[in-house]
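Record type: monomer structure entry
Structure origin: computed from sequence
Chain ID: A
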Amino acid sequence: MNRDTSLGGGEPLKKILGRVAGKLDSKFGLKTTIDLLYFFPRRYHQLGELTPFAQLTIGEEQSVIAQIVDSSRRRTHGGKWMLSLKLSDGNNRMDAVFWAKNQYLINWMSAQMQVGQTKLFSGRPSLYRGRLQLSHPSYQEVDDENLDVGNNQQVQAQAMRPEPIYPAKVGLPTWTTQKAIAVLLDELKTIPLPDPLPEDIREERGLLEINEAFEKIHRPQSRKDFAQAQARFRYEEAFILQVALAQRRAELSEDAPCLKKIPGGFSDRVASSLPFTLTAFQSEVLDDISQRLSSPRPMNLLLQGDVGSGKTVVSLLAMLRALDCGRQAIFMAPTEVLVHQHFSTLCALLGELAQPGGFNLRGGEGVPIYRLSSSLPSGEKQRTLAALNQGQAGIFVGTHSLLSNPVAPSCPGIVVIDEQHKFGVKQRDRLRQNETGTAHLLVMTATPIPRSVAMTSFGDLDLLTLKGLPPGRAKVESYRVNSANQSWTQRTWQRAKEEIMAGHRVFVVCPAINPGTEETENGSDNEDERGNVTCLKGARTAGSGQNWGESRVQNENRKIANVSETAAQLKNLPALAGVRIGVLHGQMSAEEKDRAMAYFISGTTPLLVATTVIEVGVDVPEATMMVILDADRFGIAQLHQLRGRIGRGKHGGVCLVWSGVEAQSPAGRRLEAFVNTTDGFELAAIDLRLRESGNILGQNQSGRSSSLKILDLLADEKVISQAQKDAKSLIAGDSQLRKHPYLQAAISRRISEEEQEYLERG
């Protein structure tokens, strides 16, 4: 990261802290004084407070304030001595164990840690024989444990003073970091830092000056102190990012093609010939998109709409605006199955105007529409590539093949990406840049990935929500099924038979393809981007064994459900006697996939056992039931996408999620959220809380590698919005920040050039 040390706060830590600086660098990447000052406490401890053990993360170095409730010493079989403590947080217990070669050291440690005392331990929690344990943690006195408050005002103040608890690593406990920061704070008393926040904004928002804020966040005298400091730094972080965004937007050229509305063009003709009336919400969204397409500023829009809300027809009418203006429209989908389905759907919507493969079979003017995927015959592939590379106006529907080297679209007007969570950040940006400028971008999803939710919060990725469902769409009910409950699992397959006898179709979804492996179907997708829960090979989830109804097989150690075994077992169930069962997964050829779906749609095989290959786009109006086995193996976005495959016709649907995990576990809470709502954006917000935002300044689309230090994208929405307004106002009058050199220096320290570029991507 580019760091400016000329304006204060960027001095190397080694000059001030000596050897400790090396630990701070190696453990947390803290190299300069400003790095350490912005290394905020994870939480604060006050008199009488203990650390809830339920909040600890297994395997991660942490600091724990706990009370010793039991102590014992013994000699091990190996000849060493062991001190075993039982710690309490007031509700739960945890072990802490220490070893030494001689009894004298153990006796000394025991004297330092007596029953009834409260200590600050630093270590890495683990599970030993099912019990939470700290192995040989470092420890320190808690200053307030034996305070006699009485009437002594000084002691009272000490008792009420919050104690900062910093992230810990092996060899670097919280108290070492605390002492190092104290050295810097003392330095600031004589050499204060310049404030990156403009004084007028700071005063208008009622925020602390930076030096006072550092003192109060690291050495607070009360809860009010650190609350005020946190408010200041939350706003500062939002403001710096928003100023960087506003600066970059001001510098970007307005080089997008102006896709003006052409009266009587393809867009008008197709809209008037649709076999249905657009909903009010669809019309509203189209009006908004129309204004954006008419502007030279590149559109960067996330269209969120529930599964079946009509996003495809909206995208088609937007793409036709490009054709009306002599430009290309590129539609990218994540799988070949979905490409073929979208191609067919778009052709059907175009009606007589469709010219598949560029061929004009009806005479007159029409819309050339092409497809591109790896499995296409070479002749069709070459015709598509030639049309694309020669700049012929048309609609091009393809997979990742659109990103391959031979593909060089010469005049794209708009790029539409379906199921945007399937593509990486760089992938979503690649097709836009060309010699004729920057194409407009429309990304669509039913459940935005955490990073996209984050970017909408920062105002870079504009959000439109397509509300409601087209007339006639039935409701889908969702329920969780305890896979250990035999009566429930039996009823599942009875209900499946009833649906089939009524002429409907049933999906059964498994996380794996074959037995003997616990790897989820991956293909070319990145699992972090897709939102599913990655399973390590050979891993087990407690209680994940399946109960197969009449077979009465219960086995906690059973591997996760897979397509081949599940299909075989279901064929032998009396409840499904006479039902033909098909299979579908990513290892099948394109022809095999197409044949499997054709049999399913026709009813030849009315029950289809499949992987997540069916999660996007497959439209089967007769599908009314879905059973998701080992549902805890999937993320919220994936579950919602899967559920969207049923209830797409006039009949209602039911989605049953099988799982044996505890209700209060993270996976259990995820499943509970899923069955309680069908609102895609609400589920995305929940997903954001569970998976975190990812790195808005990098490629990670979810996870804990967020570049944000103190800002919470959900809780601090108002702060972010206010910072955005203040940033726009500031940049409007001083885009180069010549009047605000300290703010510019803070941006340079905080955000590298590469990271700034990511702020411009959705």
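Annotation 1: The two ends are 22 Å apart (CA to CA).
Annotation 2: The first helix runs from residue 14 to 17.
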